[in-house]
Amino acid sequence: MSATQMPDEAVDVKRVITSLEYDFHKFELTNFVDHIARWVRKPIELVPFPFTAQIFGVWVPAPNQNYIFYNERVPYVHRVHIILHELAHILLNHPRHKLEDVLPPELLQALRIEETYGRTRTAPTEATRLDRAEQESEEFVLIVQRSVVKANLLSELTQESSSIAAFKPVTDSMGYNS
Ligand SMILES: [Zn+2]
Which of 10, 30, 77, 121 is found 20 to 30 A from 162 (Cα to Cα)? Predict the structure, then answer.
């Protein structure tokens, strides 16, 4: 099976979100991340990284852990978007591709990631606009954003709280912080 092959059936993203039975009135980013982690039965670690402006985020599924690397140089509201987008890839089990030169080998080594298959989110191109998995992830983000706004918790998407700041360990100790 090629890495880019998609299942035949389009995913009903809205239905998947409903099936999560998540209470958006209690939305808080890390709480939502934990909910998804429990759902897929695999921990999710958020790792800030000073990517160049073209790279928004990367999802790397390791054997016992899902890693979401997000560009720490973009505004908070965008960081949340990136993390939600990558969460959708995890939840919807989207196809991964071999990642070349996106993350430094010593970082991958420190995280014990041996094979780097995953997904990279870059600034939108024609290719990403035509990629069904990318569209589904963006649809997921949109629905989550709407649900959070409806629950009167817009600030959870726009204002940095302590929750996401807690995820600093590996990159800080390795001097990747910008
Ligand atoms: Zn993506």
Answer: 121
Reduced to 3 states (helix: H, G, I; strand: E, B; else coil), residue 22 is coil
Whole-number Å distance between alpha carbons of 110 and 114: 10
Q: Is residue 4 scored above 50 in pLDDT?
A: no
Label residue 132 by pLDDT band (50, 70, 90): very high
How far is residue 133 from each of residues 7, 92, 120, measured CA to CA in Å? 10, 9, 12
CA–CA distances in Å: residue 106 to residues 5, 55, 171: 30, 19, 11
Is 70 exceeded by the pLDDT of residue 17? Answer: yes
**Weakest-pLDDT range from 10-19, 42-51, 110-119:** 110-119
Centroid of ligand 1 to alpha carbon of 127 (angstroms) = 11
The pLDDT assigned to 60 comes to 95
How many angstroms does the Cα of residue 83 sit away from the middle of ligand 1?
10
CA of 142 to the centre of ligand 1 (A): 14
How far apart, in whole angstroms, are the C-alpha atoms of residue 106 and residue 95? 25
Angstrom CA distances, 100 to 117, 119, 120, 124, stand at 9, 11, 10, 19
Distance between first and last Cα of the chain: 39
Asked if 137 and 94 touch (Cβ cutoff 8 Å), the reply is yes
- Please indicate whether residue 23 or residue 10 has the higher confidence score (pLDDT): 23
